[in-house]
Write a structure and sequence with these properties.
single chain, about 160 residues, alpha+beta, Pnp Oxidase, Chain A, 9-stranded antiparallel sheet, 3 helices, 9 strands
Length: about 160
């Protein structure tokens, strides 16, 4: 994955007038890797938004989640790949916009994704096998932009991927 360009997000006057620092991409990646619940926002064919909490993993600079291609969000993604993903905290926020797609992973990628899922969710009763996505049901989100902060008035940071 490419290193993102680091920018200051643009806010209306009075929101963040004197930011002091930038976040590092490494600190944001850590939050993406460690998060348990991710809020996935897709767009229905009639342009109405659809949000759902998902279990997911961060592997090789991408978010991966699984589920039936017949779910509302999977059908939305098949029609329009653009999604937003938000982590649960509004205080230490991470918000990603990107493009999602269903994929059939290589054996190596499937093993890495299964290992990440098992490490994170085994205590919740979920430990997938790498071959379970051979016929579909695995989705990848490639980030385009990520907006994050730990202290809104001090360190709002925008990461842009080419």
């Amino acid at each position: 994955m490419n290193t993102p360009q680091i920018l200051r997000p643009q806010f209306p006057p009075g929101y963040v007038d004197n930011p002091k620092t930038f976040l590092t991409w490494e600190s944001v990646e850590q939050k993406l890797r460690e998060a348990i619940n991710y809020w996935l926002c897709s767009v229905r064919p009639n342009a109405r938004p659809h949000s759902i909490p998902k279990w997911a993993v961060w592997v090789n600079g991408r978010i991966y989640f699984d589920g039936s291609p017949e779910t509302r969000h999977a059908r939305n993604i098949a029609q329009n790949p653009y999604v937003s993903v938000h982590l649960e905290s509004g205080t230490e926020a991470v918000m990603m916009d990107g493009a999602a797609r269903e994929l059939r992973p290589t054996r190596e990628l499937a093993q890495a994704i299964a290992a990440a899922y098992t490490a994170k969710y085994k205590s919740f009763g979920y430990a997938p096998e790498p071959h379970q996505w051979d016929e579909g049901g695995l989705f990848e989100i490639q980030p385009h932009t990520v907006l994050a902060w730990t202290k809104f008035n001090e360190d709002p940071t925008k990461f842009v991927f080419e």
